[in-house]
Amino acid sequence: MGGGDAGESFPFELNPMYEGERVRKTGMYVELGGLSKPGFELVLFEPDPEKVRDNEVTLIGPDIGEMEEGGAYAYGMIYKVYGEKIEKDLEAVIERRNHEFQSYIQGYMHLNQRAEIWVRISKDAVKRGLKSLKQIARATIMLFKSELPFIEKMEATYITDEAEVEKRLEEAKKIYEARDLKARGLHDEDVDEFYQCTLCQSFAPTNVCVVSPDRVALCGAMSWFDSRAAARVDPEGPNAPIPKGECIDPIGGEYTGVNEAAVRLSGGAYDSIKLHSFLEKPHTSCGCFEVAGFYIPEVDGIGWIHRGSKVSETPIGLPFSTIAASVGGGKQVRGFLGIGIQYFYSSKFIQYDGGWRRVVWMASDLKERVKDAIPAEMKDKIATEKEAADLESLREFLLRVDHPVVKGVIREVDGAKITDGWAKEEEEAGITAPEEVTAAMVKGEAQQPEGIAPESVPGSTSIMPGSAPITVTLKNADISIGKIVLRRKRGE
Ligand code: SF4
Asked: What residue numbers bound the domain in which 79 lies?
């Protein structure tokens, strides 16, 4: 793909080979959105073609030439679309493709989605002649219309004025919320088909994304309704139906059709997925997940932290970026899981592992954000960084509030009652972490999935069994450990 169509030439190349291109801080001209400034992207369907000024771009706020080098700015991207085949359910689907098409732009890094977007423009791009965000918007519109021919007219409004971004962001959040609410009334057993999405396979080739009514996409951008609309309008595109087949495990959410899709989509890397499980055959995680979950073997519970959280560390001593590096890359990692925020509201939320009764810790800003999803009896039993900043204080907190993991979370697996939690631990007289969990933590796999700060690569890891901390620091190491078992000696 060249640097523009017959009507306009751009001072950058447009090519899928730039997907995954990273703009590091040292090579960055400006940053838009991200952690320090508000940002969002939004697609709105306009049923009246007369109300869409095709190919028109409006910019509100300073343009690239007026921005200070090295600065951070607010960023909003709103697209109005018209097409005879477009329906409202397609808004989210078209919106999700903004990430893909903007990633084709040389020297322009686009990460994440919705109100989490994070863009960097490189110094090289500016040197080559990139002067205006209007050039970016026009190139993006061109890509949208050539790749998705059902879009007949498209208009863009880009905003960099911070007050205006804040104002429009509030409106955008209401629209995201309305989309999410619509998806909550339908359940896995009500439909015959789930949907696959292969968009993120460009950087996570073994990723198997399955969107079901009870499991929103881990990027948070695609519900079952959105995926169905996408598959209908663009059957050759990244979304296609997965016939459910036979239900093998109703609690874990394992289906023959999903398992067949897992083999096909992962190139044989995975042969089974339980949609509602954390520790056993979990869903793969590409890197776009809104929230990262981590198993805490010392208390046999699960913790959660979201992208953009103000909380810098979790009780296992790792920040979001390091946990995310262990979760992502299209892998199925027992003990780590990436999810979309709306999955907290699912009635099947990690039900294979005991659901909310297995959750022991959440970043306080995440707990506040999803407070309506937490069952009343669990609200005061889940610690945040305020009550538990490390494993010792977490353990004390869980004992004090009599968290279900202390006596044991009872759950049903294949018709049998399984008890997890400390009761099981007592039985075993030791603490045994699932081997992949500990091995992945010790290996400190330095993979850098999508959505992770380019500068942040895990190098050191803390594992704290019980009250005795062990710090393992790896430098330029290539170590492979199959299994580590940590046991507390009797009487200690
Ligand atoms: S995370 Fe999954 S659903 Fe979302 S864009 Fe990527 S592949 Fe598609």
From this structure: 16-182
pTM of the model: 0.74
Q: Is the CB of 199 under 6 A from ligand 1?
A: yes
- Distance CA(223)–CA(184), nearest Å, equals 9
251 in a domain, yes or no? Answer: no
When comparing pLDDT for 429 and 69, which is higher? Answer: 69
Same domain, yes or no: 467 and 344: yes
Q: Are residues 306 and 421 in the same domain?
A: yes
Q: What does the chain come to in residues?
A: 492
Distance, in Å, from the CA atom of 329 to the CA atom of 312, rounded to the nearest integer, reads: 22
| Residue 224 belongs to a domain | no
Q: What is the rounded CA–CA span in Å between residue 26 and residue 120?
A: 11
Confidence of residue 301 (pLDDT cuts 50, 70, 90): very high
Number of domains in the chain: 2
Distance in Å, CA 286 to ligand 1 centroid: 8
For position 116, which CATH number holds?
A: 3.30.1650.10
* Protein residue with its CA nearest to atom 6 in ligand 1: 200
Residue 490: both structure tokens together: 């009797």
Question: 3-state DSSP call for residue 387?
Answer: coil
C-alpha of residue 97 to centroid of ligand 1, in Å? 10
pLDDT at 470: 45
Kindly give the distance from the C-alpha atom of residue 95 to the centroid of ligand 1, in angstroms, as a whole number: 12
